[in-house]
Amino acid sequence: MTVDTEKVIQLMEQRIGKVTYSMGGARDILSNTCDCSGAVCSAIVRCGGEKGKGYIQWTGNMPEFLSLNGYELVYAGTPNSKPFECKRGDVFIWSPNGADGNLQVASLQDARASAGSAGHTGIFVDETKIIHCNYGYNGISINDYNTILQVNQPYYDGGIAELIFRKTGNATEQTPPITIVKPQVPTQQTNGNAGKQSGLKVYRVDDMMFYGGIWQAITYDLAPKNARDTISFEQNGIPFDCINEVDRTGVYTSDNTIEGVGKYFVFDTSMISDTGQGGVDSFGEYYWRSFHTKNNGNIWLSAYTLNDLLYGKR
């Protein structure tokens, strides 16, 4: 199947007034809450697209997803420097420029600079208007592109970098690789309990990434098995300062340095707390709960209580 861009736009138009903006929950256009990337990606999949490695993407992962579905990168630069008019069906992605004003997102390979609420995406309905799910209108709306650009520019230090993708034909058979240049993994503070049994629930590092200015880990143990294609560092990444390295039996290591996927960790009980907010997703299938990290805000994990998260006991 190939993506029908007209149906994508029509589906988004049909959901105007029926979806409220949220970066949590299912993030699917047919649910009652969604965010910008969730709306675009789920609409594409529901109109003939391929899911790839989990279609509920964040803006930094969208280039992979769009390439898989037959979109080509036709522009990378600043919004006001495009040498052409955008067409109906074109997808835009905004990301922060470098703090010094130098273009940070200059190619498909650099697109991961877009992080969480710092990025935005939508679809052109004609040369001047876009349809997008956004915080300002608390849902999906059609707006003048330049007006939305002007409103958002003050929130981007150094200005906005923009990618434009255009549907050009058959989907590519293989997703182009995206290069991630990771800073060196920092050594965490030495744990004074080295060699001692933690007594806490042990988790495995299934993915890790320098995201949003900090190192984060993802563990599939805190995501429902059938919902793993929806997890992201934006919503579910665990900051390194909230965890301590252990061996698989729960004994603290001496260097406390998580160097890669496959390592094990427990939570630092002083660095995470329960917000008291939780519930099943929009489809009533999976339970998620919001936990507060001491230095980096809230994250969503599939655990019923703080006791369940820390000790595996309800």
UniProtKB/TrEMBL annotation:
Transmembrane stretches, start-end: none
GO MF entries: cysteine-type peptidase activity
Record keywords: Hydrolase, Protease, Thiol protease
Gene3D superfamilies (UniProt xref): 2.40.50.670, endopeptidase domain like (from Nostoc punctiforme)
Highest taxon of source: Bacteria
Ranges where the NlpC/P60 domain occurs: 2-168
Gene Ontology process terms (BP): proteolysis
PROSITE patterns (UniProt xref): NLPC_P60
Pfam families xrefs: Amidase_5, ZoocinA_TRD
The keyword Hydrolase belongs to this UniProt entry's keyword annotation: yes
Keyword check for GTP-binding: no
Family as reported in the entry's similarity comment: Belongs to the peptidase C40 family.
The protein, known as: Target recognition domain of lytic exoenzyme
